[in-house]
Every structure is written in structure tokens, then in C-alpha cells.
């Protein structure tokens, strides 16, 4: 796959917020009953490729210190819309989507991305996640965030979302400042077309091309057959040009309410979301020093 490391076209840079459902901006953010400032939230839609648009929920805390782009697992089809003055989601069970406000509480600007308009029928599969078209979508979102605030932009993926996050980090070097891989896919099934070129999933991507800090997080009790916490050191070994690579394991949480590869299980950090987000935020902030 050819690198998409190039400046986006003008139509990306002049992207328009089509669905503006902005709750007062961060300069005038309201306060909670305890007097603590709360984040603003809006649904944004930008053009990323000719005739293709990308929706994402943008959460802006007061005085953000960095920005994170969150890529949900599975097909990444979240069904974003806007009703009653704030964004809504048809699907919000994924770990990163559930924890989106937690990221903002740690002073991070948050972009939760939906599948792009040309992939809305079925959502995005693993092959699209490693495509150059997806890189263009990710770059457009990163550019939009940079236009809102001059902040470091980190890509964060869980499950299949780790393909998206790694792909963007590999190919958008000048705009991406760090990478978080949560419960990555490291063992692709024979039935996946991707298996022919990436039997080890993220491990078989061009990890040596990543030159930014990377944090790998896993729940020690993750029993999903698509990846294992035992694979984290293998991932780390492939990140030969990253200036900093750390692995964090988590334990405990709530009793599983879904099967072992679904969100309400250790694979989805069920019940330890706040601990995981806190560790991610700490790594991001410490890497910016």
C-alpha cells in the first residue's frame, strides 16, 4: 500500500460543519452543580474525499491539552445523528464510545468517528481500515482538530479500531503525535480476506514506520480469540522506531455481560474503563513533556 503521507486537498481544509449542534463553546462552557466546568459537544460532518463525508462527535473540554481520535471496534458504524440539542448514537456499547466523556474529563479534546458516508451501508471492514481511502478520512479529521486548536493529536483504537489507528499513524506522520492500541486484533481468522496478508493483524502492519510514542493496553482476562494480552510484547517488538513504547495490563472489572469478543467483557475493559482512560491520559500528557 502506498503511503498517503501528503497534504490534504483544499476541499478538506475548507471543510464545513454541516450538522452544528454546538452546546456553548469551551470559552463559555456551563458549570455542573458542583461548579466544575463541563465539556461542550457537537456533531461535525466534513468532506474527506470527493463526494464522501465523515461524521464525528467532537467533545471539547475547557483548556484541552491534547486531542484524541477514537476508533470503535467492529464495523465502526455508530449511527450518529443530532436531536434535542446534542449528538446521539445508535450504537454506544464499545469501550471507547462508552468512555468518551472520561477522556474529556482528563482535559482531552475528543473526536469519536463514525464510518464514512460511502461505508454506511455495512460499516467498515478490516480491509477498508488499512486502505489509503481511510487514511484520507483520518487525515481530514486530524486537520480539522488542528484547525480548532494547535494541540497534539493522538489516534486511539480498540479491537478492529486498532487497524484504523495504526494505519493513520503509519501514513500521516506530520499530523499524528501518538498512538494507543487497546485490545488489538493480532490473530485474524482464516475467513477474513485480510488473513492472507495480515495473519497477525496489527502485528503485520508496518509498525517500524511509526515514529511516535505508543501505549498498548490490554485486560489480562481478555479471552477473545482475535487477540491476546500475551501478544503485547510482540507488538512492542515491532515498534522499533517509536521513541517510547509502554504496555499496561488491567485486571478486575464487572462480571461479563456479553461473549468474550464483545464490549461487555474483559475484551472491552468492562468495569475498568475509568482506570484505562486514566492510564491513557497520563501517558499522553507525560509524552508531551
Structural descriptors:
289 residues, alpha/beta, Rossmann fold, eight-stranded mixed sheet, two-stranded antiparallel ribbon, 24% helix, 22% strand, disordered N terminus
What would your notes on this structure say?
Helix content is 24%, strand content 22%. The protein is an alpha/beta fold and 289 residues long. It has a single domain (18-24, 37-287), classed as Rossmann fold (3-Layer(aba) Sandwich). The strands form two sheets. An eight-stranded mixed beta sheet has the order 1-2-6-3-7-8-9-10, sandwiched between helices. It has a two-stranded antiparallel sheet with strand order 4-5. The longest helix is centred in the middle third of the chain and has 17 residues, at 132-148. It starts with 9 loop residues before the first helix and ends with a helix.
CATH homologous superfamily heading: Alpha/Beta hydrolase fold, catalytic domain
Number of strands: 10
Question: How many separate helices?
Answer: 8
Main sheet characteristics = 8 strands, mixed
Mean pLDDT: 87
CATH class: Alpha Beta
In the CATH hierarchy, the architecture is 3-Layer(aba) Sandwich
Any low-confidence stretches, pLDDT <50, length ≥5? Answer: 1-37
Query: What class do helices, strands and sheet pairing give?
Result: alpha/beta
Compute the separation of the termini in Å: 33 Å
List the helices and strands and how they pair.
Elements: H1 10-13, E1 40-49, E2 52-60, E3 66-71, E4 81-83, E5 86-88, H2 95-98, H3 100-105, E6 108-113, H4 126-129, H5 132-148, E7 153-159, H6 161-171, E8 178-184, E9 214-219, H7 232-238, E10 245-250, H8 273-287
Parallel strand pairs: 3-6, 3-7, 7-8, 8-9, 9-10
Antiparallel strand pairs: 1-2, 2-6, 4-5
Helix pairs in contact: 5-6
